[in-house]
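Weekly structure sync, notes
Attendees: PL, DS, HV (note-taker this week)

Item 1: Elongation factor-1 alpha
DS walked through the input record. Source organism listed as Methylomagnum ishizawai. Sequence as pasted into the shared doc:
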Amino acid sequence: MPLNLSNLGFSIKMLFSGYLVVIAIGYGVAVMQVLFTHGMADGKFGLSIEDIVYSYYGNRSGSVLESKLNGSMKNNAPDSERFKIIQWVRDGGDAKVYDKEIKPIIELRCIMCHNSEAAGLPDFTQFEHIHQRAQSDQGATFASLARVSHIHLFGIAFIFMFVGLIFALASGVPGKLKGAAIVMPYVFLLLDITSWWLTKLNPNFALLVILGGGGMAMAFVFMWVVSMYEMWILPGKLPFPDRRNALTRS
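Item 1 (cont.): predicted structure, written out as tokens:
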């Protein structure tokens, strides 16, 4: 009898299922993280084209600091203090005004996270770092894009390699559809990563970011559902001899 998901031994099914469940939870947490970071770039919850543009191309009519205060950092300070910082930015970011009026707010609201010990976050104990972000918002830097791109390319490729390996044992999916489902996450991953760089150069490519991420998600859900169905539900619908073989393999 050919080896497939429905006639795997119980231990192997538990191994595969445990992996798929943990990966699904991780995928859901990753979506939440996107919603709370990129999804707040325009100050409104939920991912939109504007969020993508602001995250990668930037809001070049304003500064990074202003965009963050109206977006993902909006809930970290009362409106009166946020508006005071924004007005300081729009007035040119004078150092003397900063020391007198803005620095106490920064120390109270921001330094707890933005300090020299916080990896990946700008150090707001240094005026130069704050002043730099008071300039025109140019979106993601090429250095940050390179760093995040190589992490996603390696990490997500490994995830889909194992998900695809499990799905490859499905018996109820036509060969061409199975092959397409296995390769599509890699196609959409490359589209997603490439669209970050293209959107950095031109905001008209922002839609490709959503298409790339959405395509990966759909491929993942399809392979996940089919794999779990064939491991745990399909064996109960098999003719008795096949069902007995599926249940007795170990």
